[in-house]
Amino acid sequence: MTRYVMVADLRRCVGCQTCTAACKEGNGTPPGVQWRRVLDLEAGTYPDVSRVFVPTGCQHCANPPCLEVCPSTATRQREDGIITIADDLCIGCSYCIMACPYDARSLVDQPRYAFGATPTEAEAARPGAGAVGIASKCTFCAGRIDAGTARGLVPGRDPDATPLCVNACISGALSFGDIEDESGPVATLLAENRWFRLQEREGTEPGFYYIWDKEAL
Amino acid sequence: MSEPIATGRRRAGTSTTSQRQRYWDLRAAGNFIGGGTGTGLIAAAAVAAASGAPYHAALMLGVALIATGLALVWLEIGKPWRALHVFFHPRTSWMTREGIVAGAVIPLGVVAAVVSRPAPVVITAGLAVGFLYCQARILRAARGIPAWRRREIVALILAAGLAEGGGLALLVEPASGGALGFALAAGLAREAAWRVYHAGLAREAGTGTSLAVFASPVARRLRALHRAGLALIAATLIAATLVTPILVVPISLDPAVIVPVLAMVGGALVVASSWGMKILLITRAAFTRALSLPVVPIRGAKKSHAH
Amino acid sequence: MSIAAKKDIRSVPSYCYNCVAGPDLMSVRVESGVATRIEPCHQAAAIHPGLGRVCVKAFGLVQKTYNPHRVLTPMKRTNPRKGRDEDPGFVPISWDEALDTIAARLRDIRARGLLNAAGLPRVAATFGHGGTPQSYMGTFPAFLSAWGAIDYSFGSGQGVKCVHSEHLYGEFWHRGFTVAADTVHTRYIISCGANVEVSGGVCAVRRHADARIRGVKRVQVEPHLSPTAACSAEWVPIKPKTDAAFLFAVIHEILFAHPRHRLDLAFLRDRTASPYLVGEDGYYLRDPLSLKPLLWDEISAQAVPFDTEGAHPALEGHFTVSDAVTCGPDGERRPQRGVAARTAFAVMAETMAPYTPEWAAGICDIPAATIRRIAAEFLDHACIGETIEIDGETLPFRPVAVTLGKTVNNGWGAYECCWARTMLAVLVGALEVPGGTLGTTVRLNRPHENRLKSVVPGEDGFMAAHFNPTGRRDWQATPTGRNAHRTLVPIVGNSPWAQALGPTHLAWMFSREPPKEWPEPELPEIWFAFRTNPAISFWDTAEIGRAMARMPFIVAFAYTFDETNHMADILLPEAGDLESTQVIRIGGTKFVEQHWAHHGVALRAPAVAPRGEARDFTWIATELAYRCGLIERYNAALNRGAAGIPLAGEGYDFRLPAERAHNVDTIWDAVCKAATAELSHGAEIRDLDWFRAHGHYVVPFKREDWYLYPTMARLGLRFELPYQERLLRVGEELGRRLHEQNIHWWDSQLDEYLAVPQWHDVPGRWVRAIRAQGGDPADYPLWGITTKVMAYTTGNNVGIPLMHEVSANLRGHGAVILNAATAQRLGIADHDWVEVRSPTGATTGRASLVQGCRPDTVVIPGQFAHWKTPFAKDLAFPSLNRIIPLSLALTDATGSGADVVRVAVRKIAPQAGVGAT
Q: In Å, how far is B41's CA from the nearest CA of chain A?
């Protein structure tokens, strides 16, 4: 079995938003919609303060609340763990948005473009252009994974089979791959480091891991 | 799962990722209002029908309100012409179930109105309560919104719907003891459900913004209206059954006029309050979850302290 | 059929050099002739320290290309009146009309002479950030070279927005125009405000992230919890502009609280001037015959010339020297007999003696215990005596570094900080060795592509320094550029870069009020501006705008309308980042943290055809040269290497015939061939078509060449530390020259020329400046500073919506960052509108409340407050630039100022505009 997961090493992330921009440009999401984004969180009180940058987006949960609530069955779970939205089924009720504990889904009800009402040539050329009135979210770049694996490439290792955010990440914070591949880079990273997942108590079993320290020896 | 780091740091937190949900607006609130009040009205109609009182107006209005609520949602969804897709997922989606039950309630309500017998009305009311239960479970399953996802929301939505219906029934049908009793009982149940809901919300961390909305002057006024409405209904009930002459004669008004008017005002206050609170609940107090980290990352060497 | 099969999809090689932290490699995905997205250059992962990736800015280039607000035809001004409130009345014109208009003026100037009556160039040019516009201006440098004298001194922010003192002192002391930690080896970094995670580029970000995983300890000392502080092991919130006191106290602690053997005594003795003997007059005691500095030989117990074989120099001590001479200013020889002498190290130590951690605590607002601990940790990590093997060579291993950020590094106090930083490295032998503090590139010295080759033996056992002369006969008494860099700032030298460093704000200031002692400077008759917007990016932006409006003729290469080209007479639309051709050098060691194990060249190929009438810059430059009758000189400049690479060298000759104009591809084809021939020593010749397919060509660059130390050791040279005899002398000479001209307005700057820096009340200068500006210091109780955002810093991209959107994920974007407790005291809530006021102006924006900021400090990120640039003008963002005065009193001896101002903050009524969300 294959289970694709994302790993964000919070020790590395600098909050630069390169992943956010690469995702937006590559997936053609309209202004205001960010499938991948990096949160800028602060904790503590001056002068004992921490500021942490947290890449986030769809957590591709094993038990996804969005899937449960979706009335149209547009939200689906692939065998490799990726949660997808069937654009032709979605009715745009936004219920999945309300159900997601990670605030990872979006919906626009009007076409929106970077410079106003008219798309630029680049925007018009995007496959995602005009996807209005349906829910959207990170797909782990499922299309790239499928096209890449069809060519024998390995997601997380070969750029052509890897999500755009991971390819773009400049600090090396983002890693991607099959967690079931025990000798693979993602499983190794998780074995050698201490990690958590967001809202773990929800029982959603996210496919998004956050490394925060090396494993104690 | 790793344990938190023992930094002894107080996690005051000045930043939050929580924000007010932007997708369900007054139209969605309208569905919860229409569905709740409609169900309440149909239930009130069933009570009236069972006791031989007039019920047609309440029944028809109830069905119409449910339909209107659904129509409002239809206006809100991004792909209205795919609306039938809503029926695709009965296995787990309360929204699908809401749609299916609504599909039974509305025609059955129309039939019940036409055949003019109590039994279909009671059956319709039972289905309508089921419909409202689906609506309540819709909110409870919205796990991204802490103000909705609570177990207590189910009782609140059910009680609120019945209270709204009971209150509105006082405006559309002649006030009877049964109607007043229904309205008062439902209103008191709503009050109790609200208190349980609010107490639960207050116990949960990270719900401050929602609680602030419920503590706002508007919310406080709405709650006061609710209590005033209930007081009026209670007073009317008491007046109608026990002490009408004492209350009414000194001010030289005809009890046959004043009792229904007081009941109507009381009912209207309950309805307005509950609608207002629903609008707040759906559009104002609905904040997404704040993400919180169990630990902060170790960036390089662990921090040492002055020696 | 797949989408890919239906569409014609191509990947076009390119580079991003929008900030000095590049260049980085990328490719542009082009679908059916439309550039759709930027992708990293994964093929370069093995050679690029950032694994072939580009930062967030590059992902804005597609929107930048298709921005509907672009200027896409040449335009001319029809309203002769200039000013912010004047509509320029730009109308489209043909390229012929535009170029002929410019060429006619240029030919007229040429006929009258390149210099005006004051001896200043009649033509001026300003380019934006850190020389990066050169990587986008094709062969325009060849045109400038063909032209001759040009005044580059109208700054776009240089001197006040760069790490100015580091440029000058860094290059002087260790050939470090910018200075970095050797992050791949270091274990401990004291970073005073160096915001490397934001402005260090992808190479630095990757290197530091790797270092964190390795366990490096970076202590970030700065008033505001920047992303760099966030990603550090420790944040030490220091009061603005007191970094020198902190660093002095660390030096004090190292000198007086730890035994001497914790220092790298051999390094101090052999590779620095520590043992040189200083006489009572403050100058080195020298051998009367050879004039070589003396040191005290412990074996013979006498003073001997510094290069005496077999001598064992004393590092410390007081001695009596029987016969010596000192060389004072203006060649004064001062015989010294039986004179008391101290070693330079001893003078340094005695100067640092008063600067205890307790003393610094009162100035910096950092607990003395913290300063002590940091000093101890610095020593603990220094690994004195250890070595490491690099490229088969055994080198000292000293994994401790000190880095400085902008604002620490410019304006008053910066000399002290640069000295203290370099001194800390010197004390433990961590300067220019693996793990230590390194220079990255040279700009005031040559060659730019390998700084080691710029190391030439000079006087007194040091590297040669190229100061502007200050002697009676050779001092440049009247400025040759409008910022008077050769006249006022000896250390900046007179390289092509020197003028654009210097005190560039003086050019703007003197255009309004010239010093009466010098000829009226007169504004340049033509001013070229490219990738620069000083009307936003300098200080006192209103005044800068007025100065521009007085310029008689401005030629602006225009991407969109903006606040600077609003004053222009001709707008020229150059083909943009994704539309034009250029070849640049990559790799080796470059600005910030670009340390590669390769070097070579990369092509920026046009991914798409230029939009509208935009034209390749090389075409524009060639046309201008041709129309000005300069084509032969232009081609000669190209042949000499003005396009980045000399077209002829040993064993190859791709020079272009001089007498005729060449097209863009011909020129760059020659550059490609020459570059590959140079790099491969003639073994491989690659043409433009090869580069279009492959993007870049590299050969190995020795990692040993990251470090200056081996070269210094090989040449037997010493770093010119700790004692600054040269600066002392130069300062005295400069003072004499200025006073001879009766110029006294530079006197406080002359005070900076100390042989060993001493603390003076640096922050107090800003407090006192308020009074000079007519205000009451009590009314401005807070410090106003700025910080950078990666998406914007030096990106020329404020008009790109994507940059705004992604930056809004960061706290404080487009806002006024305030400590939450301070805000509460002032009655300010998050997102409230506030006014930040200095004695010279006010700026407004939304408040962003945080814990990670000193209570006495407000931070305004970026450089905004646009009023013309499309999109940006609707953001209603605040800008610190609006409220910082152009001030001589706040200009240091190098001619730089710092982004600091005393301010008051108050809540105001909501303002129009989008504001920060």
A: 26
